[in-house]
Amino acid sequence: MTIPIEGETIQIHSYKHNGRIHRVWQETMVLKGTKNIFIGANERTLVTESDGRTWLTREPSICYFHAEHWFNIICMLREDGVYYYCNVSSPYVFDNNAIKYIDYDLDIKVFPDMSYTLLDEDEYEQHKKDMGYPEVIDKILKRNVNKLESWIKQKRGPFAPDFIEVWTNRYLFNKEMQSKEK
């Protein structure tokens, strides 16, 4: 497997279990790429939905993906604090200059005070039936919801106090280096 290189720009592709594209983020800067971890950042990037609609992200975000965990975490940097949007998903793969994963509907929204809410349970149940999620996938996903909740409570991974500062500084450094190269 190829590994994304720090400073380069890649896309993020979200799919559904049936193999159809769900959403594409046009530009994300690589901050860290290893065989297991991808950390990227984007700001005001174009997002294309499966029906062709487009929109721009509103704030800078740090994106965390892991090749062994069934979730990814988007850290949105807003004026009143960091909000986290956690997608329960397949582990990512890096292919054809894009991070790719299957979105399994369930999401956890985490607020700056670290309170959180599980979202889209109805959508998950509907898609589970419509797309025939196997029982083994259902169990893996529910275990990973529990793992995410544990990470939030323990302030682990992207929820750790210094995570945002470290990766925001790396993002600003890379942006500065790119602007000097132009």
Automatic annotation (TrEMBL):
PANTHER family: PTHR39159, UPF0374 PROTEIN YGAC (PTHR39159:SF1). GO terms for molecular function: magnesium ion binding; nucleoside diphosphate phosphatase activity; ribonucleoside triphosphate phosphatase activity. The keyword Magnesium applies. The keyword Membrane does not apply. Mg(2+) 2 binds at residues 105, 107, 120, 123. Has nucleoside phosphatase activity towards nucleoside triphosphates and nucleoside diphosphates. This is Nucleoside triphosphate/diphosphate phosphatase. Mg(2+) 1 binds at residues 87, 103, 107. It catalyses: a ribonucleoside 5'-triphosphate + H2O = a ribonucleoside 5'-diphosphate + phosphate + H(+); a ribonucleoside 5'-diphosphate + H2O = a ribonucleoside 5'-phosphate + phosphate + H(+). It holds the Pfam family DUF402. InterPro entries: DUF402, FomD-like_sf, Ntdp-like, SA1684. Residues 18-156 form the DUF402 domain. The active site is at residue 23. Belongs to the Ntdp family. Keywords: Hydrolase, Magnesium, Metal-binding. Its cofactor is Mg(2+). Its EC number is 3.6.1.15, 3.6.1.6. The lineage of its organism: Bacteria, Bacillati, Bacillota, Bacilli, Bacillales.
